[in-house]
Amino acid sequence: MFNFWNMVDRYGSELQLLNQASGTWADNGDWIEGIDTTPTTFIGALAPLSVDDLQYAEEGTYSEKDRRLYTTEKLYKEQRFVQKEIPYTIQAEIPYGDELTDTRIYIARWAGNESRQDQVANSAT
Length: 125
Fold this sequence. Notes:
- It is a single chain.
- Helix content is 18%, strand content 35%.
- The protein has 125 residues and is α+β, with helices and mostly antiparallel strands.
- It has a domain at 1-7 and 43-119.
């Protein structure tokens, strides 16, 4: 079994999983999205996508801001998490097979706000 956990332990950081309560149907038949509940903390390591990830993505085109997420947590497509105030959305799990690794690997799409990122970058200078 390949042990990615050493990498997660060494390079990982605390990430905030944004939990969303399940939605409900209103009396008039409209769907009401669930509201975010208290975030939970988990450990994960983010890494840039490889050239192969960028070239052969089944889920569409990725950008240089998207990342691979290494963690032991079971996450689901469209789940959201935050690292250093930067939001990401899980797009897919990379299937390595449970028998080959103790760590799950996901494609995480950057879900930030371009104008906010520019403001943060400009305030740092």
